[in-house]
Amino acid sequence: MNKETNKLLIFICIFLISSSVILIFSLSSKNKFTLILSPDNSEEKFISLINSANDSIYVENYYFTNERIAFSLVAAKNRGVKVYVLIEDNEGVDKIYNLLRENGIDVKIDKRNITIHSKFMVIDKKIAIIGSHNLTKYAMERNREVSIVIESEEIAKKLIEIFENDYNLT
């Protein structure tokens, strides 16, 4: 490599690092965020967030078999919270689907030829939870999973748009 190419690469690296720092600073200064980690007490944190809902909960998740989280959604629905769930067509999800459906929750299993691999939840149109957690006991207790909880109406709104698009196409 010649001197000019090296200078250009250094400039690009500095630009990318600076942009990342600015983005992270911008995110942290506008929005409050925390982490949910597994195998720590992630199941309790998810349930606590669900229990805090007053208006609405949107759940889009690749794999959902965790009964405690399902019962927390049912309890939220019984408190008057609107609950919407979209899960991928995976082995074992029928039990959760039936439990939610029988308790009046608006739930769909995505059987399209496109895989819903996203894992997010939106609470009260202002709290977004995005990460690697499937809603399974295994993910909560045995895997190393990381999700971020962000208090941001803007991010929550975008995730609801994604959810509604996926839900309506199912």
Task: State the end-to-end CA separation.
Answer: 52 Å
**Count of alpha/pi helices:** 6
Q: Specify the CATH architecture of the largest domain.
A: 2-Layer Sandwich
Radius of gyration: 19 Å
Low-confidence stretches: 18-23
CATH topology of the largest domain: Endonuclease, Chain A
CATH class of the largest domain: Alpha Beta
The CATH homologous superfamily of the largest domain corresponds to Endonuclease Chain A
- This entry's quaternary arrangement is single chain
Biggest sheet architecture:
7 strands, mixed
User: What percent of residues adopt helix (DSSP H or I)?
Assistant: 40-55%
Strand content: 15-25%
Number of strands: 7
For the biggest β-sheet, the strand order reads 1-7-6-5-2-3-4
Quickly give the structural class. Answer: alpha/beta
- The chain-level mean pLDDT equals 87
| Apparent shape | globular
| Tally of discrete structural domains | 2
**Order of helices and strands, N to C?**
HEHEHEHEEEHEH
Q: Brief description of this entry?
A:
The chain is α/β, with parallel strands linked by helices and 170 residues long. The protein has helices at residues 3-30, 42-51, 67-78, 93-102, 137-141, 153-169, and strands spanning 32-38, 56-61, 82-88, 106-110, 119-123, 127-131, 145-151.
Describe the protein.
The chain is an alpha/beta fold. The chain is built from 6 helices and 7 strands. A 7-stranded mixed β-sheet has the order 1-7-6-5-2-3-4, sandwiched between helices.
